[in-house]
């Protein structure tokens, strides 16, 4: 096979890949992105957190994102029976961007990738990594061009795996670990929502807890074009005995939540229905000789707080800045400067995800008389500022959540 020499190869052109490659390019490095699909392509993960904005800006893409006509998002709302709580991301303990966006990922990911390309990143679409040999001095990747089956190899100084659910390097370098979270699945679609409920706020994601099964929840993520992403999440066993047909299954779940039944009463269900399960994943290491793992190619927790793209972008920024230093001849410590700091925020989210499912955090969220300062601290985490150690609910998340939940339960 023909062998090509490259400096940095990025696997995948999702948000992780585009942000990392643009940051590296802006620092003067040659970057090649290999993406197996043609863009635009569908992927789930449509509600961004405020902290994403920092990385979009760092990658030089903020103006393009601001001008793209995306649905502005100011926060998150939670509903359970007649309980309803709103968080406003413009009022957080941690200073930072407040508003963010709700996006169709097909066009959003294309926008980011085009922005990376416009800054000099080379992207080859419909080219798939099919093998990786990491035994030599430099990684050697085997690539198949999907349009004609032509295969070739690339030797690179460094590879960044941004392949998301493709999990290319974890699979090929035997790095996969099962997640500590149980297997859940989601069923979802985009609906033409026709929402006329005056209480429904298009500028927030709405998370609804199932009236009886508190581990089952729904997302409603409105877009700017009159459509809304609507999905239900539960343990696999919650889907046993439900209709096999995804459309009937989703509609049945939605009809069980009175608020959603009301909000979506005029909805037109004219888009494909999809399902995804077993998405939580972990890895033995986030880096190794000649490579680092970004975004979902590394670890994915759970969709409930929309943290996926934020963690992905944060990992891209950390890795790109470290790799820049390494390529300029500095010695860097990938464990101490990449894995450890990245995992801090992931662990914060893990606390609240686990608290969501064991209902301690739900009891906090649905508590009717929160202290404003505590609410701003919790709101910071929901807005994505899960790395801010000044926030006691980050620095000491497990103990703080346990104490707060106890308080809410005894007063609630
Ligand atoms: P991706 O966006 O998946 O991109 C990876 C790219 O790599 C793809 O384009 C793929 O084609 C390419 N690729 C894969 N294999 C190869 C290969 N062999 N060769 C070349 N290219 C390859 N996150 C949020 O922030 N907000 C949400 O509201 C949200 N909701 C979610 C709901 C559900 C049900 C689930 C499961 C997840 C949700 N997420 C959400 C998480 C979100 O989907 C991911 O965190 C996010 O897409 C990660 O981005 P990425 O760039 O790492 O990977």
TrEMBL record:
Superkingdom of origin: Bacteria
Residue ranges occupied by any FAD-binding domain in the UniProt entry: 7-225
UniProt GO MF annotations: catalytic activity; FAD binding
Protein name stated in the entry: Flavin-dependent dehydrogenase
Database matches in Pfam families: FAD_binding_3
UniProt-listed InterPro entries: FAD-bd (IPR002938), FAD/NAD-bd_sf (IPR036188), Flavin-dep_Halogenase_NPB (IPR050816)
